[in-house]
Amino acid sequence: MDPDKMYELLSGAVSRLPDSSEVTRRQLYAKALTSIENNCRRADGSLDEAMFQTMKRSAEIAAARIEKQFAVKNAATTPNSGPRSASAVEPPRRFAPPDDAPQSAGEYLWLKALGICGAIGTIIDFLKPLASLQSAAFFIGVLLATLCHFAMRLPGATGRRWLKLGRVSGGLVAALMLGLFGMEAVMPGDQPNGLLADTFPPIAALQTRMLNDIQAGLGRVEQTTTAIDATTRETKASADRIEQQTASIADDVRNLADAADPVVAARKAIVAAGFTPDLSGYIAAVSSGSMAQYQFVDTGLPISVEDFEAALLRFRYDTPEFSNFIAGPLVYDSRFRSVRTAFNAVSSNAPKGVLDVSGIFQAACGQGGDSFLDKLYRFNLADQCSDRSAWLEQASGLLKAMGGSLYPRVPTLSLSKG
Fold it and tell me: pTM to 2 decimals?
């Protein structure tokens, strides 16, 4: 991974830290290096040292860049208003003549063109055993001469010296190729090695030696190309593997930043468990007995006491959901202290070991009020109002369910009237 990509990952993680102090940042860097080391281990557990050192170096460069930005941000800077230094003075420009300046006789335009043409013709004739390039050179020469000729006629054209040289050189090359065609047509027999080699034996020996070297070089190039192709495939496979490891490291770095924020971590754990981070999700988590219910405490859910009491009134006292709900973590939240207080206040009315439940009976079966306890009594006890003994048994179960370990010390329930 290159330092720029690592910088994007680390800077993004630092920006999400709730506390971006130097200590917290360095802890994040240390965790990121640990993650890099873990991702650079092979299947047998050994460390890929080369890959680890490369990615570690990228992480160190990115961390140093982030720390430098923090240092610049925190340092008090003052603008420089002094005079420009001598090094900032623009150097004098060197005079250059215009492209269309008059040509001097010493430039020998035609000699240059003839030299270029001769060199091209010699090379093409010398390489004839490898490839016949005369036709290609002819058409290229015609095209070059034509383009340069029309370019010179354009208004405001620059570089006329070069255009003239190109026009003359292209014309000479085309003429030379026509001349070679004509000479080969006139000369008897075939000239597979070219005119120069067939005319001058020393040139033929030099051509043979050089062409053998060229062919040997081409063979080595072909072998090298095959090796490069294999290396390229291996490099691509390594790049794919590094890309996968980079994605894993990126996820690890983002998770490190998210783990530093308890609210974000709690929400992610709730969603991972299959619940929504709201009251309905909490009710579902509590009803199923999932451990995810304890993550809702850190999310700071905006739940009112009325919403919480209404949620509690969804379940009868003798259901597992009711038991889970009143034992859940949010019942002990300071916002819902009134609910626990209402549950515990019932036991204070039994100093002699006997609890008179006439008030509870009146709330459940008579003209009870609209308090939370009144609604809870009606919801759980109203169906047994016609049977005194059954009502007492059900009321006993409700009070014990409400109080948990408090009510075993209340051995008797009495109903004085009703």
Answer: 0.39
